[in-house]
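Task: fold both queries, return C-alpha cells.
Query 1:
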Amino acid sequence: MINMNSNDIRKKFLEYFKQQKHQIEPSSSLIPDDPTMLLTTAGMVQFKPFFLSLVKPKNTRITTVQKCVRTTDVEQVGHTPRHHTFFEMLGNFSFGDYYKKEAIIWGWELLTKGYKLDKSRMYVTIFHNDEEAYKIWKDDIGLPDERILRLGEDSNFWSAGPTGPCGPSSEIMWDMGAELACSKNCLPGVCDCDRWLEVWNLVFMQYDRDEEKKLTELPKKNIDTGMGLERLASVLQGVKTNFETDLFMPIISTISKLSGSKLGSDKKKDISIKVIADHSRALTFMINDGVLPSNEGRGYVLRRLIRRTVRHGRLLGIKGLFLNDLVDEVIALMNNTYPDLQTNKTYIRQIVENEEDKFSHTLKQGTAILEEQIKVSKKEKKKMLCGQIVYKLYDTYGFPMELTSEIAKESGLAVNEKEFDKLMGAQKEKARAAWKDETGSKEAYAQALEKAGATAFTGYEELTADTKVKVIIQDGKINKKAKAGQEVEIVLEKTPFYAEKGGQVGDTGIIQNTKTKIEIVDTLNPIDELVTHKGKVVKGEISSGDSVQAVVLGNRRRAIARAHTATHLLHWSLRSVLGEHVKQGGSLVSEDKLRFDFTHFQALTDKEISEVESKVNKMILEGLPVRCYTTTLEYAKQSGAMALFGEKYGNFVRLVEAGDISKELCGGTHLSNTAKIGMFKITSESSVGASLRRIEAICGQKAMQLVNDQENTLSSLAAMFKVAPAELEKKAQAVLNELSQKDSQINKLKRGSAGQEIEDLVRKAQSVGSSKLIVTTVNEADMDTLRQYCDVLRNKLGSSIVLLISAVCGRVLIVAAATKDLVEKGFDSGKWLAKVAPVVGGSGGGRSGLAQAGGKDTKKIPEALKAAEDYVIKWSKGKGQGTA
C-alpha cells in the first residue's frame, strides 16, 4: 500500500479509466437537472437520463469525480468515522457497453496494482443468487469462497424505484483491523461496526422490474460504480477515520486554533469538531454552486447546516463570527481541484457572514428558551417536547426543527413532529418535501427523441423554415395524426422556434402548409436535444411526415431579444455599481418585461437604482455591437465570460458579447446592436429571499410608453396646481407645509373643545360603591383620542372605571380603563372588553388597567353600553373580588 494524498488519488482514478477508454467528465453542479431531486447525492445523478434510456449518451464509457451532498444521516455526522454531508464520489459508468467482468476486473486491478492495497485485507459481497459475479470474483480474480459473502436484497440489490432499471451489486470491503471487531463472529457486510469499511460499490443494472415485480433482462445493461474519496483516502493514508485524512485535518487544525480544543482530547468536543469540519465543506460547496439560505427546498438544507455549525461552534466556546475562517481553509484546500471556489470566494464569504450573523443574534436567546423547556419537561416527567415550542423556536428564533430535535435528543427527549407540522402548514416546506415534475410525459418525449433524433435549431439565422413533421404528441402519447380542434405537441425535423430555456420564454407562431394550420402558443425543451411545439390545430389535419412551413411571430421574437440583451446589460451594470459579488440567481425574459434575480445583501437605494438604470441606457445610446458566436469553454473562461451558477456546459459554448463590457455564456436570442433596445426603465426592486434581490424592468416601446404616461401625469398635476411641471415639487412642498400648519390649528381647536367635552363626560359619571363609572359614547373620535380621554378622566375622577365608544367610518372603536386601586382589587379591563366587544361583532385585548377593541356593528352600540354597565355593577356587588 502506498501513502497517497487526495489530489493524487483523484488523478490516478481518472487516469486509470481514461486508459480504459473512458471519457473524463467534470463534476456536475450540486443543483441537479432532475426536478425530483433537491441535491446531487451520487455520481450517477447527472447520468440518470442515460440509465433510464431517456437520452442517448455520446460516450458509452464515462468516469467522474462527483461532488455530492446527502443529509439523510446528518445526525450521525461526528458520531462515526465515515458519515458526511459533503463527499466526493469516484465513479466509472458504462451505458450498454462493458458489463460485470470488466467492472470487477478493472476495479480490483486499480485497487491492488494502482493503489497497491493489500489483497489479504479485502473482502467482497455479492447478491445471494448472482452466480455470474461469484464466478468472476472466484475464477478471474482468485478470491477464496470465505472472502466472497452472499447477501440479500437490502444490502446488495439496487433500484431507482419500485419499477424500472435495477440489478445486483457487489461491494468491496476493507478490513480496518481486528482490534475494531465488535465480536468474535464479526463479518463484512453483516456487521455495521468500524472494522469493515465499504470502499467501492459496483452496481450492475441488469433488469427492468414491472409493476408485478417481474424482472426482465435489459437488452443493454449498464454499470454504475461509486467509491468515496474520503474512505479511500483513510485507507491509503493509514488512519482510522476519514476525519484524520488530508481532506479534513487542515480544517480541524483551524477549528482547534479558534476553540482551543484538540481532536481526541474530549469525546463530546470531538463530535462538535467533526460536525463543524464536515459542514464547513458542505456549506462552502453548496453556496459556490448557487444554493442560497432559505426556508424551503435546498436552501433550507443549507440554512440548517449553517445553523448546526454555528451551534456546535458555541458548544466549543467559540464566540463571534467564525465560519469564514473555515470557508477560507476549505477553499485553500480544494481550489486546485475546483478553481471556481477561489473565483467565488468573496461571494461565498458574504453569504456565509450574512447568514451566520443573523442566526448568532437569536441563538443565545433561543437556546435559553429551549433549555428551560427541557428542564420543565423533565420536571413534569414528559418524554416529548410539545410542537408549539418547536414551532416558536423555528418561527421566532430561526431554529430548524431538526436542530431543536437534536438538542432535545441529547437530553433524552423526543419532539412532537406531528404537532409542529400541523402548525407549520403548507407555508413551510422542508428539505425532504417532494418536488413535482412538470415537464409532462418523459416516456413519450424519450420515444419522440429516439424516433425523430435531435431537433436542429435554425432560429439564430431565420424566423421561417421549410421542414417536416417527425412526431405528434397528444395527451402524453405519440399519435400519427391530429385533426382540427385538437391540442398537440409537434416535433419538427428542424425549427426556427426558440424553446423556453435559460429564462427566455418559448417562441409562438404558426406551423402550416396548404391544407393545415397550427397555432403555436409555446415552444418547449422537455428533454435534452428535443424541441416540442405546443399548439392547436385550427385548420385541416396534420400527419407525421408532412412537409410544413414553420413561422415564428417576428415582432414578439424581436421584443424578447430586446429584453434579453437588456438583461445582459443590467447584469453588467449591477456588478459595476454594487460589486462583483452580484451573480444571477434567475431570470425571466419575455416580450412584455424582464425580471432579474441577483445576489445582494440589502435593498438598493434610490440612488443605486438610478445609477444602474443610467449605465444601461448609456450603453444603449453608445450603440455597442452585439456578437454571438460558438467557442471553446476554456477560451470563454479565459476571456472573462460570466457563466451561470448550476449550469452545465459542454466543451463548446455560445458566447454573447456586448461591446467590450458584457460577456456571458448564453444560448438565447439577441439583438445585433444595443441601440435597438431603444430605452430601458426599472419598474421595481424587491427582496425574493435571503441575500436575493429582484429587479423588474421594461424596454423599447413599453419603456417609452411608461415615460410618456408619467409625463402626462406630471403635466396633469402641474395643471391642477397651476404651475409649470418644473415647479411642481416646490409647489407640492409648499402645500404640504400649509396643510401641516392647518393641522396644528385644528388640533388646538380640538384641544379647546376637548376640555369642554371632558367636563361634560365627568358630569355623566355615576357612583358604583366608592368609585366612579363612565360608560358612554364620544362622537367620531379615533383610538388615540379615546385613550387620551380615558387617561384624563381617570386623573380627574380618582378611583374610577371608564369605557368610551366611538363610531368612525362604519367601525366601532372601544377603549376601557380602570385606576390602579381597582385593578389591585381584581378589576380587569381586558376581561371587561372580552364581554363587551362581541356585542358589536368585534374583539380586542390589553392590560388590566387599559384595553382596546374594535367592532363592525354600529347599530349594537346601545346594547354594548348596557352590557358594559351590567358587568361593572355585577363586579361591584362581588365586593371588588372580580366575580363577574
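Query 1 returned. Query 2:
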Amino acid sequence: MKYLVIQGFEKLEGINNYKLNLLPFPQELGEITGFYKLGEELGVFFEDVAPESEEVIIEVMTEELSTIGKLSCKKIKGILPQELKSFEPSNQKVIDETYALYYQEGLLVIMAFADKGIYYGALTFLQLIKLTDDGFVVPELEIFDYPAYEIRCITDQTSRNQIPTVENMKNVVKFLSKFKINYHFFYMEDSFNFKKYPDIGKTRGGYTAEEIKEIQEHAKRYFIEIIPIFNSFGHVDNIIMTNYPKYAHLGEFPGAGTYDVGNPEVKSFVEDLNKELCSAFDSKYFHLGLDETFDFGKYNTKQIIKEKGKDKVMLDFYEFLIDSVKKLGKDKIFCYHDNVLGEKYLLENLPKDLIIFYWDYWLKTWFIFPKKKYKKAKKLRDRGFPVILSPTLYDHTRNFPDTKRTIENVVTMAQYGLEIESLGIATSVWGDFLNENLRENNYFGYLVTAEAAWSPEKWDDARFKENFAWFFYGLDNLEIIRAIENLNAYNDHHSMYPLKFFCHIWRHPFPGKKIKPKVKKLNDILQKSEEALQILGKLKLKVKRNEDNLDYLAYAAKLGIYLGKKYQISIEVQKKLNKGKEFYNSAELIERITYLKDYIEALKKDYEELWLRFAKPNGLELILENFDAAIFFYEQKIQEIKDGITWKNPFLKAEFITARKKVKMGNPVFLRKKFSIKKPIKRCHIQGMCDMLMHLYLNGEKLGEIVSKMSLAVEPIKQRIQLFVVTDKINEGNNVIGAECHNYLISRVAGNIYLEIEYETGEKEIIITNSDWKANHVLESNWLNLEFDDSHWKNAKSLGAPPTISGHVTQPHISAGIKSQDSCFYGIDTFVKGIIPWVPLFLGPLAKKIVGLDIF
C-alpha cells in the first residue's frame, strides 16, 4: 500500500457557509463530520511512492494551493499513524486508480495501491479546499473512490486544420489529468512529419517525432498515456492529395479517400508510415482507424473484389494491418466499428482481441424516430469483442459546441456502457471541413467526459454545471452557464446534421434580389448572442481561473451576432434597392453595409489572434481567405450602390459541360476551346473545377490536375477550385484550352473552366465553359494540339452553371486576389450517389432543399 499524508490542520467547531464541489464525483462519499482549517503551509510526506510521482504531486499541489489562495506546501519527514485503515478494491481492473481519503489523528491520509491512485487522491483533496469566513477549510469526511471505466479519454483531432501547438497540447493534457482523464488519443491523417515521406504533413503543421516525444513524456508525468489514431484505410485523402498527383496511384482512384488495397505498393507504403509512428509513440496501444471507407470497391479494387469477394478482400487488409503493427511492438489494437458491423465475414473472423471503438452521435430520438439504446455496441460485445463507446462533443462547424447534446450523448453512452461492460468512454473531437470552431471552446465537453466516465450512475446535471463553473472559472454562480446556454441558440434551433453555421457566415451577403436566410429563429439567435456577450463582459472581472478562455466564448457570441445582423441588414438593404432609387438613400445603405464590413474585419483580426494563441499557423490562411472574400463582397456592394446598380449576380456563370454521349464511370470526356489574342496582354489566369477529376491544358502544356469532390479533409477542399497564372503561356494569335475529365464514382463527368484575360489597355475578356465548347468521348491523337481539327467534335452538353454539381460558387475577382468561393458541400450529389447508387440524381436538388443546403 502507498500513502500520502498531509498535516497542518486546525480543528474547527463548525462552519455554516461551506459548499462541496467535486469533479468527477466520487463513488463513495461519507458524511461531513466536521471541518479543519488549513495553515498557510502544509507539510506532506509519502510512503512507498516513486520519487518522480512525489515530484509531480508536490508540483500540482503547490500550483493549486497558490491559485486557491496564499497557501503552500513542502515535503517533510513524517511517521504514519500506527493504526491505518484498510480497504479492498471494488474492481481489480482499475486497482491502480483506486484510492481512499480519510482523517486520522489530525492528519489527512490518502492511501492507494499505485502512484496514480495517490495522485488522484491528492487532486480530490485539493478540490475539497474552500475559502469561508473562517479561512481556508476542508471537511472531515471519508472518500473511497475508483473509476467506472478503465479508459477515459478524449480523441483529439489534430489533422483537419487547427493543429495545436506542442505547448497547448501539453496544457490540455495536464488539465485533463487533473480531472482523472487517463488517456488521450491523437487523431492523425497527415499531421505527422514522416522522415521517409517528408512532404506529407510538412505544410500542414504536422508534428515531428521529437514533438510527439515531448508531449508524451509530459503526459506520462501526469499519468496520461498518449495513443495515436492513424487512419490506415479510409480518410486518407489528405495523404492522397499531398503534393498531388505524387501519391494518387495509391488511392482507389485519383483523389480517393481510400487506399487501393489491391495495389501491393499500398502495403509497403502503409508499413513505412506505421513504422515511424510506432517508433514515435511509446504506448502499446495503436488505433488503425478503418472507418468510413466510402470509396472502397468503387474502381481499382472492383476486379479483385469480383474474384475474392468484398468481405474477404477487406479482411485480408485488416489482418495485414493488425499483424504489421503487432510486429512493431503494439499488442493492443483498436479500430472503428462501422466496417466490422457492415461485413458479417469481418464480424466472424477478425481476432477477438481487436478493441472496437463504437461511435454513435445520435441521441434518444432522431427527428421522430426513437432510438433503441446502442444495440450495435451490444452486438459487438456479444460476438466477443472488447468495446469502447465513443460519443462526441459536437464542436465542428458551429460557432460554439452543442453542450446540451454533448451531455445527452456522453452521459447516455456512459450509463449504457456499464450494461455491456464496455472498456471505456472516448469522446471525440472533430474538425470536419476547415474546422473553423476554435478548439479552446471544448473544455465543457472535456469535463462532461471526465464526470460521466468516472461515475456515470451518479450523474447530476445541475451539480455538474455548478462544478464546471467553479472548477474551470472559479465562479460560485451559474451566470457562465447562462452565457453558455445562450451560445447554444443556433444549436438549439437546428438539427445535428447537416451542419451549416459557417456556411452561413461565408455565404455571399447579397446572393439574390430576394434573400432567404434559411436560419431558424434568427432573431432569437441574435438576441441570445448579444445577451451572452453582455454576461461575459461582466464576468471578466469576476472569474478566478482561465480568464483568457472568456475571449473564445465572447468570440462565439460575436459570430452569432454577426450572423443575425448580416441577414437582417442585407435583407433590409436589398429590399430598398429593389424598390428603386426614389425609395432609398444611398448614403444610409452604404452606412449599413459598412457596419457589416467593419464588423467582419474585426472578427478576422480577433480570429487570427485567438487562433495563434493555441494553434500552429498552418491552415489559418484558408480561414483568413474566407474573411477576405466576405470583406471584398461588402466593398463590392458599396461600389455598386455608388454606381447606381441595384443588384448584380455574384455567382460564377461558367457552366459544367460534358460530351453529348454519356460515358461509363471512369471513362474520359475531352473538352476543347480555341480563342485568339489580338493585342498585348497584361495578365491572364485560368480557373478550373470539375466533377470530379480534370487534367487541364493550355496550348498542349499541362497546367495541372484538379480533383473536385466533397471531403471532410483540408487538402481536397483547398485544391478543388484551382487558379493558374498563365500569362507567359498565352500566344499572340491562336490558342487552345484542353481538358480531360473523369468521374470515378458516378457516370456523370463534367468540367468547369473560367479564363480571364486582362489587356494592357485595361480591358478584360472572359471565356467560360458553355455549349459553344467542343466535346468528345473518344481519345484521338494530337487532340491537345492547336492545329488539331475538331470540326467533327460535337458541341458540348451544358449541365448548367453552379449550383449544379458544385453548389453556389462565386465569380472570381482575380485582380482583387479573390478566387471563386464554394461551400463545404461541394459535390454532395456525387458523394451521396457514390455511396447509395440506387438514389436517382434528380432527387438531389429536392433533398438539398428539404435540409436547407440549396442556398449553398
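Both queries returned. Flag for query 2: The CA atoms of residues 184 and 226 lie 5 Å apart.
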